[in-house]
Amino acid sequence: MTGNQNPTPTGNTLTTADPMSRQTNYRWVIVALLFFATTINYLDRQVISLLKPILEKEFNWSETDYGNIVTVFTFFYGTSTLLAGYIIDRVGTKLGYIGAIVVWSFAAMGHALAGGTAGFMVARALLGIGEAGNFPASIKTVAEWFPQKERALAVGIFNAGANIGAVAAPALVPIIAVTWGWQMAFIITGALGFLWIAAWWYYYEVPARHTRVSPSELAYITEAPTVDPMTAGNAASTNLVDDAPARKYAIFGNRAIWGFMSGKFMTDPIWWFFLFWLPTYLSNIYNLDLKTLGAPLIVIYSAATIGSVGGGWLSSMLIRKGWHPTRARQWSMALFAICVMPVMLISQVDGLWPVIGILSLAVAAHQAWSANIFTVAADQFPKTVLSRVVGLGTMAGTLGGAIFPLIVGRILDHYKLLGNLSEGYYIIFYIAGLAYLVAWTMLYIFVFSRAAKNK
Q1: What is the pTM assigned to this prediction?
Q2: Cα–Cα distance for residue pair 165/301, rounded to 1 Å
Q3: Residue 239 pLDDT > 80, yes or no?
Q4: H helix intervals, 146-222
Q5: Does position 227 have pLDDT exceeding 80, yes or no?
Q6: Helix 256-286 crosses helix 294-320 at what angle (to 10 degrees)?
Q7: Which end of the chain has less Cβ packing within 10 Å, N or C?
Q8: DSSP character for 211?
């Protein structure tokens, strides 16, 4: 919906009889739109991992071939995020988000035209370019529509769409593939993005111009955030100032960018592994096929949904109880890092469902971590550069995500030749279990410790 271009009336001009004198909650409609966009985003990227058992036979892929295809996606996704963030900062979230989804929806459908490995690489590259706009646009939208104390919860809610997409994929894709063929699985899921575009065009506008936002909700959205002690006295480096000086803001002059990028570099590759290799892991180790993979994957990614919302809720709750935002993020993320560590014990666990339980905890912890690391960025940078900051962090994460599949593919092919594929997976799970503690340490060095010293 295109908002009213007239200035927003103040609360003093409204009578108590006017329904707009009551505080609206339209910001939650906006976060629902972000949730569905992220759901479609992850549904589109997840299709190939579920179809891998079919595609690897049809196109004679090795684990290394599949790793290369995953790397192409993550490379183009990562290298496009900064450009996507820059474009979104320039044209705004409404048009920027639409452009991103048009590109990725056509690319998702284009997988059906692939006639070999090279064709899939081209389709994955285009998908990565389009999907690169999702998180920069979403985080910027949250910063525009939510006060600081609600941002982690809002990010957690829309980020849960990643898990719903991952849950929907094993529920829908096998049925479509078995009934109409693997090509239709890409076409049908890819077409969903165009339905979302219609809803976004109708319902979205910035808060100050939106006719469904009351003056009291607008005042709530724009209330001054808590000053972070690490940036106190430097107004241009916080969200307190969002004017011309902030537009000249030196992103790399703030140490928080290095903590944010380091944290994403270390942990995003683990999430890529959980997305693109868990179906193969369950198929190889527990002999599950396309028809029996659905239930375990639905359980795992449903847990991730709970983690995403719960992680955002935890730090937001601590802030409401009087914790400083930086301290709330710090200790929440430490807890989430610890919750990933049990994946290192998978080699000592017998039975499918105990393993599913451990993996469910790990992916839930990752999504809780993700909801908070994005809000670390939103806390530290002005809105005018936030899409670029998120683009930089996502680029760092997907750089790690582009390197890690190459390592995973070679490890698995090596141990497959030795006839001990399970050992290869266990090595990767050990890496995953330690990655979040390393990432938290980097955030502590660049963000959390400086905040503590300046209190």
Answers
A1: 0.68
A2: 9
A3: no
A4: 148-180, 182-203, 215-221
A5: no
A6: 150
A7: C
A8: T
